[in-house]
Amino acid sequence: RSQYIENPILFKDLTLYGAVDARKIIRGSLGEVYSMRLRDGRENSLFSYASLERRESYVLDPKRCCVDVERNCAQVVIERFKGRGGLIVLPTKIDNWERIHDGEKRWWEQLVKELLKQENVQRNDNWIWLEEDLDWGVEPCQKKKKRRR
């Protein structure tokens, strides 16, 4: 629908669904960009738009986000994000179109549930997003440790 103008079905499984919208959302935001793992590593396409805007981007990985959390992890992640600022972008559910990494559908549901509770949340056919002013508080998730050489 909004990936490319008049998108032929041939490209359905080759690119990021909703890419045009994602680019606009990221271009109009400030700070770090957060999302979750998408099908076939397509979050990297999303994060390439952040890179083009010279912004850092991070995956909200439940294995890293929920390490030190005893209560609703998605709620804690959104609270931490609000204290830090930036942009969270999550895909919407579209019938007959797998957009989320296979093992993270429940994580997506929890994050979306918490995002939709927020006053400034925005949504279109392809994405749900929340932008918060930059405060540089606690990171929503632990960063991936860099490998030693």
Which descriptors would you attach to this protein?
149 residues; alpha/beta; five-stranded mixed β-sheet; globular; disordered C terminus
How does this structure look, described?
The protein is an alpha/beta fold. It is 31% helix and 13% strand. It has five helices and five strands. It has helices at residues 19-27, 43-52, 62-65, 73-84, 105-115; strands at residues 33-35, 57-59, 86-91, 122-123, 127-132. The protein has a five-stranded mixed beta sheet with strand order 2-1-3-5-4, with helices on both faces. Helix 1 (19-27) runs parallel beside helix 2 (43-52) and helix 4 packs across helix 5. The longest helix is centred in the middle third of the chain and has 12 residues, at 73-84. The chain is globular and about 35 Å long. It starts with 18 loop residues before the first helix and ends in a 17-residue tail after the last strand. The model is unreliable at 7-14 and 145-149 (pLDDT under 50).
In brief, what are we looking at here?
This protein has helices at residues 19-27, 43-52, 62-65, 73-84, 105-115, and strands spanning 33-35, 57-59, 86-91, 122-123, 127-132. It is built from 5 helices and 5 strands, in the order αβαβααβαββ.
Write down the overall mean pLDDT. Answer: 80
Major sheet size, sense and barrel closure: 5 strands, mixed
User: Reading side by side through the largest sheet, how are the strands ordered?
Assistant: 2-1-3-5-4
Tally of alpha and pi helices: 5
Classify the secondary structure makeup into a structural class.
alpha/beta
Question: Total strand count, please?
Answer: 5
Alpha carbon gap, first and last residue: 44 Å
Proportion of strand residues = 5-15%
- Note poorly predicted spans: 7-14, 145-149
